[in-house]
Amino acid sequence: MRCFRAFRASTIRAESNPDAPSSSSASSSASVQSTGSTLKINFCQWCGGPTKHDIPEGEEKIRAICTLCGKITYQNPKMVVGCLIAHENKVLLCQRKIQPSYGRWTLPAGYLEIGESAAEGAIRETWEEAGADVEVQSPFAQLDIPLIGQTYIIFLGKLKKPHFSPGPESLDCRLFALDDIPFDSLAFSSMLVTLKLYIEDVKSTGRPKFHYGTINKRPGTSPSDIQSYTLDFHLQS
């Protein structure tokens, strides 16, 4: 069994909302209003009827319950998957061509699709954003962001061929030496955490570990505010 060493990060930073809080059960018939880490759903996604917000029998949380058909809308976190690709002691980053964080740098990553595994999704996102054909080697980090209902799973990846080019959602793709990574121009603090953990591993032990942690953000931070968060319940193997 793997041995995990837990500690609480001493520095305070903040994970910004890379996308609006998301619900896996949202649809075109659902009207939503933000209420912090969840969405207030006003209409049923099945029949379009108005909802009431109450605690269903046998449950503990307030849910949106349709007043017409009685169905309950459950909100679940979204999974973001991507690859950290090291090639010749450099890391592949993409410059975003879309909002939020247009023009900022990120690892190739995006939402997992129905019908694919996390590794398959990471490979697909890397191809779509960086035009890179990669082989997944091992998981590197799982970072939970409860405030916005997202979980990041980042894999270590290897280029099958030393070729990459910007996809439709990227302005540019580049390999950065570890000391040249543009930390002041990263898109999200999840990327900041991932890259800093990777650099710490490589410089201290020469090899990446596996990391789990929870990024707790200050409510109301903007997507461009990536420097103020706490990395809590940090486990590493």
UniProtKB/TrEMBL annotation:
One of its GO terms (biological process) is flavin-containing compound metabolic process. Its cofactor is Mg(2+). Pfam families: NUDIX, Zn_ribbon_Nudix. Residues 76-199 form the Nudix hydrolase domain. GO terms for cellular component: chloroplast. This is Nudix hydrolase domain-containing protein. SUPFAM superfamilies: Nudix (SSF55811).
